[in-house]
From TrEMBL:
SUPFAM superfamilies named among the record's database cross-references: Sigma2 domain of RNA polymerase sigma factors (SSF88946), Sigma3 and sigma4 domains of RNA polymerase sigma factors (SSF88659)
Keyword Transcription: yes
Ranges for domain DUF6596: 192-292
Keywords: Sigma factor, Transcription, Transcription regulation
NCBIfam families the record matches: sigma70-ECF
Family indicated by similarity: Belongs to the sigma-70 factor family. ECF subfamily.
PANTHER family xref list: BLL0085 PROTEIN, BLL6612 PROTEIN-RELATED
Molecular function, one GO term: sigma factor activity
InterPro entries: DUF6596, RNA_pol_sigma-70_dom, RNA_pol_sigma70_r2, RNA_pol_sigma70_r4_t2, RNA_pol_sigma_r2, RNA_pol_sigma_r3/r4-like, WH-like_DNA-bd_sf
Domain RNA polymerase sigma factor 70 region 4 type as annotated: residue spans: 124-174
Name assigned to this protein: RNA polymerase sigma factor
Domain spans labelled RNA polymerase sigma-70 region: 20-85
């Protein structure tokens, strides 16, 4: 039998993990704005988390865990600046450049009085050209999404040590280059824009369907990604790809309330109650897509995906979806940015536009590609197609294989449930990812 102390400790650890994922970007962004050092800001946030793990089991979880972490990190920052001569000199240099009069930063004012685009500054900093593209992605998923090194490694199908090295090198490179913590202007902003949009896209996707963990959705990430996309569109109102991304995120986020049931289990696209879709978000998304198209961005990577999302948003019922157009849009997307994942999504659309047999041949070809080896959605889609063709034993095996590959507990339960329900035809809904 678990003792009260162990129960409280387990509760505290779970609370720290949840708060850390939700609050990490804000805590790091607030500290990075003052210290000018992203690596140092992350270290301070992690030290505060260690302190929480030490204190919360005995003292109980505070009423506002995020504020507790921010305050703890702020105090450690002040201590570091006071005790470390090198850091004090660094701050004096920062203060001289910014015209500050104080010797030490006013953390109470700077961290508690949050500036709304701090997270956007963090995104632009993590997307500096001094970093390699793969390092930008890894650093962003770590800082903005709070993913562990192991989770990032699983998402990219690379060794954990590789991801850890990328993150370490990225933080050191930013420090060596003296990259300012700011949203750049003019040409420099333009050079980072593609990476910034990709980062917001990754951030949203992790919130939309979490790579790992006990929950299917992470609304905190989807909310922040949409918010930052809106700010970016405000900064660059005539950039078609910015508007395309904003349209995509608005349209996808409109389904949030319908994507899980009362118990938190995933609800597939065809089974969702579309009356729960956010009509205002859909209207915003369609308006952004229309503007992107009028500005000549109809063939942009994000605008094409937004156009696909618009096909679903405009369909009153799942059966009204224009799957022929969806398949065509995926083909255009594959022409612009070839990807086996895009081809897999096209196969799903083909299965509804033409039939599951035609789609299965496409999926079997994709299964030969090394990039999709170990990709659980390949087996999930294959299970769906086999089920619809009446090949129930093979379908059940495919769903069980997909369940073994996913690291998300909710998705695993869904896939195992579909494996068990195949004879009854439950595996007929397109995935909503």
């Amino acid at each position: 039998m678990t003792g009260a102390g162990e129960g409280r400790s387990g509760e505290a650890h779970r609370a720290v993990e949840t708060v850390f994922r939700m609050e990490l970007p804000r805590v790091i962004a607030g500290l990075a704005r003052i210290t000018g050092d992203v690596g140092l800001a992350e270290e301070l946030a992690q030290e505060a988390t260690v302190a929480a793990l030490e204190q919360w089991p005995a003292e109980g979880v505070p009423a506002n865990p995020g504020a507790w972490l921010t305050t703890a990190a702020r105090r450690r920052a002040v201590d570091l600046f006071r005790r470390n001569a090198a850091l004090r000199d660094k701050y004096r240099e920062l203060a001289r450049r910014r015209g500050a009069d104080t010797e030490l930063p006013d953390f109470d004012r700077a961290v508690d009085g949050r500036i709304e685009d701090d997270l956007l500054r963090l995104v632009f900093t993590a997307c500096h050209p001094v970093l390699r593209p793969e390092s930008r992605s890894a650093l962003t998923l770590r800082l903005l999404c709070g993913l562990s090194t192991a989770e990032i490694a699983r998402a990219y199908l690379v060794p954990e040590a590789t991801v850890a090295a990328r993150i370490t090198r990225a933080k050191k490179a930013l420090e060596r280059a003296g990259v300012p913590f700011e949203v750049p202007e003019g040409p420099e902003r333009a050079t980072r824009l593609a990476s910034v949009l990709e980062v917001l896209y990754l951030m949203f996707n992790e919130g939309y369907a979490a790579t790992a963990g006990e929950t299917w959705l992470r609304p905190d990430l989807t909310f922040e990604a949409v918010r930052l996309a809106r700010i970016t569109a405000g900064l660059l109102p005539d950039e078609p790809e910015v508007l395309g991304l904003l349209a995509l995120l608005e349209l996808q986020s409109s389904r949030t309330a319908a994507r899980v049931d009362a118990g938190g289990a995933p609800v597939l696209l065809a089974d969702q109650d579309r009356s729960r879709w956010d009509r205002l978000a859909i209207a915003r998304g369609l308006a952004a897509l229309d503007r992107a198209v009028r500005l000549g961005g109809a063939s942009g990577v994000y605008a094409l995906q937004a156009a696909i999302a618009a096909c679903h948003a405009r369909a009153p019922r799942a059966g009204d979806t224009d799957w022929t157009r969806v398949a065509l849009l995926y083909q255009r997307l594959a022409d612009v940015r070839p990807s086996p994942v895009v081809e897999l999504n096209r196969a799903v659309a083909v299965s509804y536009a033409v039939g599951p047999e035609a789609a299965l041949s496409l999926v079997d070809e994709l299964a030969r590609q090394p990039a999709l080896r170990g990709y659980h959605l390949l087996d999930s889609v294959r299970g769906d197609l086999l089920s619809r063709l009446g090949r129930t034993d093979e379908a059940a095996r495919a769903f069980r294989s997909a369940a073994a590959l996913t690291r998300n507990a909710r998705e695993r339960d869904l896939l195992l449930g579909r494996a068990g329900d195949v004879p009854g035809g439950a595996g007929t809904s397109p995935p909503d990812r």
